[in-house]
Amino acid sequence: MKTKIIPGLVLSLMITLCGYAQDYHVRVGFFGNSITIGTGLSDPANECYPSQIAKLLETKYGDTCIVKNFAVSGHTMLKNGDEPLWDELFFKAGWSFAPDITFICLGTNDTKSWNWDSHKGEFIGDYLAMIDTFKLRNPNTKIIVCYPPPAFGIVYGIRDSVIINGVIPAVDSILKIRDVTLVDFYHPLVNSSTYFPDKIHPDAAGAKVMAKIAYDRIVETEIIHKTTPGTTFVTSLGTNKSEIKLGDTATISWTTANADTVFLNGEGALQNGSLKVSPKLTTIFKLVAKGKLGNDSLTIQQSVYQPALTKIGISPTRKTIKEGDSVDIKIYYYDQKSLIMEDTIIDGAIWSIPEGGGILIDETNTSTTFVGTTIGKNKVQVVVNNISVAATITVEAGSGIKQTMQHVEQYGFPNPCIDIFNLPIEASGTVKVKIYDITGRLQIQKQVTYESTGNHVLPINVENLKPGMYLYDAEYSGTHITGKLNKQ
Q: How many other β-carbons are positioned within 10 Å of the β-carbon of residue 7?
């Protein structure tokens, strides 16, 4: 058979309803909507009608059948419907399953006005296309089509009038065009509204009746004996992560039917198994199964991407602080998939306060500390690789620095210092200097007066300060100079 390419699939949620063995079983796949998946049932995995059919088949045929339910609630046959089953991973997984019997029960959601009124002319063509799609995967598959059960009221937009006058006649046309088997869920249940408490979905008793209707038809037509068991297929091939970043790991899983030998990218593999992979580039994985009655293969693509910075975020530990208090702010780097780039540090972070006031301490490529000196809303911004982001921090009145200060380029030397910190002053008159710790508590206060205008150096004794970071505020001639002082 020709190689088929399918997208990465996560198949772990498929419902297996009968035992699984390698030798000559009949695979039965159910495709439908909420009625088939068992919406509204207390135990849908066991009470839905496909599950109950599986139990009935086991009583008659023993361990002959492998039954899987690929239905998805709310979906349509129409490709242009609001929720086409065609687009679902479960549908693609069901196609890979290559069922020997393909059981299709669709049409209920197609009756909604926004689906049927605009696209009813496409229903038969889409139905035939679905049949042909399964025939392409397994030319020997036997197709069962259904009249949907009645709708006992207009609920969710579903209309019984369209089921009886639109969907059922369309299914009749399918019967004339293709060699398929019919299961009638409509006429036997037309007077059984008690089985449908919400007017659409069967309860457990109703699902049991539907299972018996379908089972009797399967037995009557002997469709189980008309299949061609034993043909070799790759029945699933998927990855638990459709895309991974470089360095991450994904798990490739697969199953086969009636295979004697199996190869994954040319290497011998188990008939059913999994393999952890960490490719450096986007890689195609091909599984080949060979058996007595043919060969089959499927391929999937494991996408790999190189993380690149596309967005940054910053997160202050608090968004409201008291005047003179400090708050730590951390940078988060995000890649093109909006995932945090763990353990990544990008050089060149530029921090600033574009609105309000305050002081930034220890600006790095990963974080900074903001000290609030201006009451009101203050904006702290960081720019990395021309990408910027800002956070708003509200400063409320409180103990600490009381005056609004203009942040200018840092002055003073040496910095770090041990005993004397020298502050350059270009002015005359009175100069007031205050030094605070980072919580805003006043530590040193000094005042001097210069008679002449010019360049002065004001020495400040900081010998008694404990080692750490401090803030200074020098006020003179109507100007504030603020900065940080590192005491060693």
A: 12
pLDDT at 22: 44
Q: What is the mean pLDDT of residues 350-372?
A: 86
Could you tell me the pTM of the whole model? 0.70
pLDDT bucket at 440, cuts 50 / 70 / 90: confident
Identify the structural domains of the chain with CATH numbers, from first to last.
Answer: 4-226 (3.40.50.1110), 236-305 (2.60.40.10), 311-396 (2.60.40.10), 420-487 (2.60.40.3080)
Average pLDDT over residues 353-365: 85
The Cβ of residue 311 has, within 10 Å, a number of other Cβ atoms equal to 13
- pLDDT, tens only, 180-209: 999 999 999 999 999 999 999 999 999 999
- Vertex 69, ends 65 and 71: CA angle to 5°? 155
